[in-house]
Amino acid sequence: MRTSTGARAGQYVALLAYLVFLAFPFLWLISTAFKSPRELGTLHPTWIPRHPTLANFRQAFDEQPLLHAALNSLLAALRAALIAVVIATPMAWVMARRRTLLARAATGWVVVSQAFPFVLVIIPLFLVLKNLRLIDSLAGLVLVYVVWSLPFALWMLVGYVRAVPAELEEAAAVDGAGKLRTLVSVTAPLLAPGIVATALFAFVTAWNEFFFALVLLKTPEKQTLPVVLTHFIGAEGVADLGPLAAAAFLATLPSLVVFALIQRRITGGMLTGAVKS
Description:
Elements: H1 2-33, H2 37-40, H3 55-63, H4 66-97, H5 101-113, H6 118-131, H7 138-163, H8 166-174, H9 179-190, H10 192-208, H11 211-216, H12 225-229, H13 241-267
């Protein structure tokens, strides 16, 4: 009993330490965003600002077009998430239900594609987009985001499809439903938690992505929010810390809000009672 209690206490301590480790950067970011320039330059920084101020937020909006950049990021992320889910859902269904050589090869491609770094693929992508005349356009950036997030989206949805009882699809086929009707009317509703989780992954990935947006977008009016955040760093590498922290804090809010709204659908299940005994 003592060993079990000590082990559980150790687990809670480890979990608490991990949560503190994860929360520290975000909490420090919030603290920095509300500090005055004088507090930011002190040799003895504090967790809680002595004189909280919104001046950093006002300065951030005055210096950079944050709202326009956030709109660009939002449009790119929403389009990429929607397109990735629409493409990945039927592909995942085929890969999960058809245990053929082609399906196994596609699964291997999904795993291998995750090993390619950004730097390795940026030149081929740049040349392809140049030939398609999609350089310096949000459409080209959305295309890149879809291609980049599709392998992981497939990997996620394949697992969800395999969790759906095949007997439901067989029953629909007996009733005369075709494959498309079965996918849309039977399988897809049961995949709602997986589809939501996949869309969230694609959205957050596109919202936070920096490297592709930096290389592919040159016009200031088309740049996304992560790229605009770099404008708070001067030519000599000196960061305007207060406005940068304020803008970075605002940039993290959409991801947190989206996750908070749909986290129940991610962790929940919709298969309970689906199979009648």
